[in-house]
Amino acid sequence: MAEKQGVGRRQVLRGLGGAALAAPVLGRTGTAAALVTTPDAAGAPRPEQLHLQFGADAAHEMTVSWAAPERVARPVVRLGRPGHGLGTLVHAEERVYTEALTGERVFTYHAELPRLASGSSYTYRVEHRGAEPLAGAFRTAPRGRSRGFRFTSFGDQAIPAKVGQGLGPATPNAGYIVDAVDRLDPLFHLLNGDLCYANVSDAPVETWRSFFANNQRSASRRPWMPCAGNHESEVGNGPHGYLAYQTRFALPGNGTRDFLGNWYAFTVGAIRVISLNNDDVCLQDGAFSAYRRDHIAGYDAKGYDPYIRGYSDGAQKAWLERTLRAAAHDPDIDWIIVCMHQVAMSSAHFNGADLGIRREWLPLFDRYGVDLVLAGHEHHFERTFPVKGVLPGSTLLTPAPQATDAAVIDTTKGAVHMIIGGGGHSAATPWSAFDAPNDGVVITDVGPGDPRHQRASKTATEPAPWSAYRDLKKPYGFASFDYEPHAPGGNTEITVTHYGADLGSPNYEELDRFVLRKPRHH
């Protein structure tokens, strides 16, 4: 764990005409990143990589985050309502980490904005001493079932242009998809892991910088809420490789210190969103990086190992069960949505689904009535029928479909799983990877390996009666979700639309639409 150089503070400042608002105690995000509260004298680089995150209560909490190429003095956020000035001043805290591969120090800043009004618009500006400010705006979530909203999701984005030696993936679609999402004006966006692939790049800091700069035009105006995928684990950056991720994002707490941000939950409307880190339970050796192995000084001597299965020693699973149990019994929650990276089902001969997820997560999803699971990892679009339990006699724990209507789905019968892995990666799942009729592909074990040699996946195929739809037309895409709290007949609905595009095309067209429906939780 990196040295903690400072502690959080809470301070209330009132600007002219502005209401009092408490500055954050970002000690709550005391990750392995160092927290610094006394920056050096101003160097005046402009703020960059601006992005937002909800707190645990999306109606009342928001965090503004950004970065600078060097330490800055007096980082603050000025906040206000449209037309009423920026009367509230909130001090930000600094987090720092040193990239193990290059030795670069990374400086990020986070200002937590609590006690906001629900369903309201705000404007803000981030500033350092002596620097040109950077402005943004956002909306808080509506409270409870007061009104509906839209959100969007994809995974496996990468960056729009290569950096460094060009070792990491990059396509123009990683940029085009941001504009396609933005045109739909969602309240928030879910990133289903493998954000920018910094762990396979020779220039990881610049890769992260490109990722945030690319998304800033949207992420400065709505939260982009991530889950950590296998490519967010950068061996050498902290005990499990997540130090860059934990430094750059300030996410809702999970009751731990070292794992903060790796899993978390937030409530938006009558939806409980749960973000998981599947590398904790996956069999696949997915975080291995030959480049980092060969170029990090002292890789062997320091005992680095990118295979981190079981790293939380059961802490994440225990938290997940507590969180699911609370959501299932909360009369104000109608929907439970899980955002994760690796998948429980896939009909592609690509990575494959992971038996570890089926063993550890799916029984909990069944027990507590998860409605929707959003994932990436496989670089295509696919969705399932509602699944619950396993097919009789299945040694692979093949999920059992509980209905076969692919157009209108009652999620009280089981959870619908979606693969939305076409965010922009340059290695889309090839069409030749799909069997007809559909076969499921499952990682059942891994071969021998060690910190210097990646463990090869062992896979098996299975019948795939759970597969409701897969897109074999467009390799890149995202999904939108229109939540309606008050549908006819005492129901609540989410209308899901999948949009896809060809490589190099900015035109994302509607390819699939279906409805999730269930009774409201009275």
From TrEMBL:
This is Calcineurin-like phosphoesterase. Residues 47-131 form the Purple acid phosphatase N-terminal domain. Residues 180-380 form the Calcineurin-like phosphoesterase domain. The keyword Nucleotide-binding does not apply. It comes from Actinomadura rubteroloni. One of its GO terms (molecular function) is acid phosphatase activity. Keywords: Signal. Pfam families: Metallophos, Pur_ac_phosph_N.
